[in-house]
Structure formats: structure tokens, C-alpha cells
Amino acid sequence: MNDGLDTRYLESLLGYNTRRAALTIIARFMERMAPHDLRPVDFSVLSLIGHNPGITSRQLCAALSILPPNLVGLLKSIEKRELIRRSPHPTDGRAMGLTLTAKGAALMQQAEATALDSDLSAAAALTPAEVKTLTRLLQKVYLSPT
Amino acid sequence: MNDGLDTRYLESLLGYNTRRAALTIIARFMERMAPHDLRPVDFSVLSLIGHNPGITSRQLCAALSILPPNLVGLLKSIEKRELIRRSPHPTDGRAMGLTLTAKGAALMQQAEATALDSDLSAAAALTPAEVKTLTRLLQKVYLSPT
DNA sequence: TATTGTTATACTCTATAACTATA
DNA sequence: TATAGTTATAGAGTATAACAATA
User: Fold this and answer.
1) Which H or E element spans position A96?
2) What is the C-alpha separation between A97 and B90, in angstroms, rounded?
3) Which domain holds residue B124?
4) What is residue B122's predicted lDDT score, i.e. its pLDDT?
5) pLDDT, tens digit only, all 146 positions of chain A
6) Would you say residue B45 lies in a domain?
7) CATH for A74
8) Which of A96, A129, A137, B20 places its Cα 20 to 30 Å from the Cα of B74?
9) A89, A95 in Cβ contact below 8 A?
10) What is the rounded CA–CA span in Å between residue B56 and residue B87?
11) What is the pLDDT of residue A1?
12) B24 in a domain, yes or no?
């Protein structure tokens, strides 16, 4: 590929390989998720809300490395689509607890199936054991201290 | 981490894990490369020019998935820093052949050492065999057809 | 005094249309 | 007619400062 270019040096770098793989996987994810009208970040937010009913904006920001001002519009948008509901937080008057609506839960049931489908397709060249190994090594990279 | 949040579902997705690992590795790369005043994309462009003297803008764009209009400013900037030189292309009057200047080559010798250093640090939790496996699996993901 | 959520805003990255000069 | 390089510009994505309400 790339004409007769020598790309061996870049291909020896972990960052280059990881970024290219991420872009490939995410591009496929975006294609398949388009019918649900969900970007990766929308999916992540809705998924975390679904699996953690009552979660706050602040917790979403911490878990997904989103800055609070940038979450405002996103939440406004998925609330307008009636996918989430904001309720007063039981103990903290400043915060709002987020939950999926029935419509949001139904959408996410489909979307999570689509995500699994996208993963299987992206990893089609890998055996199940290789997928498991890849996942384990990636987590080792981003979960290790330093 | 993340308070008592349930993030198990997201952590089961290949895209989520790959993206988080890429962001971790790239953040470290940026920190270490800052003294050279090079962003990842600057490093990639200079590295490809160094390993492929006479390469054209068009080839850089194809290899790195950069759109031509977005490469213009980057090249202008590293040319102003006297890291590259543009010479008329030997056979195509429309194109320019790009090469590193002596200053650019000297900087890249240091920068490639820094990149290797950054990689080793990012993969500190992995054995050399695991790094090799991780690289192989990542390339399998982004090089496989479909 | 610190924190949650918000507005306004700026900066970077990425994308599209249209031009010029050469092929 | 097609391609290499360029300009101008629009749209995402990401960042900081500052504020009101509550802890």
C-alpha cells in the first residue's frame, strides 16, 4: 500500500498502531450506529446512564473524560429526543440524577446489539482468543499507573 | 476507579478499549515530544519525509489520511522552522519534492529517540513479547480488508 | 470555601468548494 | 480531463474563565 513508501518506522510505534486501529474500529462503529443517530460519545453516555441509573453529569464527565461545559449540549440534545430524564438528586440539591426513558432503554437495547455486531465485524480477522488477548493488553496499557 | 460506577459494559467493547489506550499513549507521546515542539502529526510528517526523501504532499496526505488543505499550514510551519526543504519535482512540474534539512534531520534523530522512549514507557506494564503480540493484533485489525 | 451545572467563548481539528498551474 | 497544491471557509471537537445555586 501507499505507493512504494517506506512506512516501516511509523509502523513500529505503538502509538501509531493503536491510533490507526482505533480509527478503523470507530469508523465502522459510526457507520453501523448511524441508523440510531448516535455518535460514539452519545452511545457511551447513554450506556453509562442505562447501567447506572441516577448517575450525575459530574460522574459522566469523570468516567468519560468529558469537560462539563461540553456535556451540557449533549444532554440537552438526548433529553430533547426523550431518551433520558433528569430528576432532582435525592441527597444533593445541586445535582440532577439521570435515567433512561422507556424510549431510551428501547433504543439502547438495539444500539448495544449493534455495537456488539460492529465489534465482531472489526475483529473478524482475529480469533476469539486473540480478541481476549488484545483487550487484556489494551487495558494493561491504559490502566497501568505511571 | 470512577466512584462505584459500573463501566463493565463499555470495557467489553473493543472500540472503547482501543480508543482509551490510544489516548493514553498519545498523551504521553505529546508530553515527551513537547520539548521538540512537535505534535504527533508533525512528527509523523517529518518522519515520513526523512525515510522517504523527495516524497510529495499528495503522498503524505494518502499515507497519513490528512486532507490536502490541512497539510498546507503544517508544511508552511515546518518549512519556516527550516526543518524541511521543498525542491521542484524531477518529473512532475506541479509537485514539489520534500526533504529534511540538516537541522530537520538532527531534530528527527533526537525526536525518534524520544518516540522510542515514550513507547517503552507506555508499554512498561507489558513484556517485550506482549508488545510484539499487541502490535501484531492491532495491525491485523486495521490492515484486514472489509 | 468547594462543588454542580451552566453560559460564553476561543482554539484546534477536520471537512468541502473552488481556484491555478501543470499533466 | 484529471491531478498537485493552494485559498477560504465551515463545522466538529476540545479547552478555559466566570457565574448562580447549593453543599
Assistant:
1) strand A96-100
2) 65
3) 8-143
4) 95
5) 456 899 999 999 999 999 999 999 999 999 999 999 999 999 999 999 999 999 999 999 999 999 999 999 999 999 999 999 999 999 999 999 999 999 999 999 999 999 999 999 999 999 999 999 999 999 999 998 77
6) yes
7) 1.10.10.10
8) B20
9) yes
10) 10
11) 43
12) yes
B30, B118 contact by CB (below 8 A): no
Instruction: Flag whether B31 is in a domain.
Output: yes
A77: number of CA atoms within 13 Å, CB side?
A: 13
Average pLDDT (B104-118) is 98
Of A10, A14, A48, the CB nearest to B123: A14
Closest CA to B60 of B108, B19, B96: B96
At a CB cut-off of 8 Å and minimum separation 6, what does A135 contact? B12, B14, B17
Residue B14's H or E segment, with its range, is: helix B14-33
Nearest to B40 by CA among A84, A23, A105, A134: A23
Query: What is the grid cell recorded at B41?
Result: 502529526
How is residue A69 written as a grid cell?
A: 461545559
Query: Between residues 85 and 144 of chain A, which touch chain B (CB distance below 8 Å)?
Result: 112, 115, 118-119, 121-126, 130-131, 133-135, 137-142, 144
Say whether B131 and A14 touch across the interface (CB within 8 A).
Answer: yes
- Of B1, B11, B20, which to mutate for an interface test with A (greatest number of A Cβ within 10 Å)? B20
Please give the residue of chain A at the shortest CA–CA distance from B58: A2
Which nucleotide is nearest, taking the CA of residue B69 and each C1'?
Answer: D6
Establish if A2 belongs to a structural domain: no
Judged against a pLDDT cut of 90, whether residue B4 lies above it is answered with no
pTM, entire model: 0.95
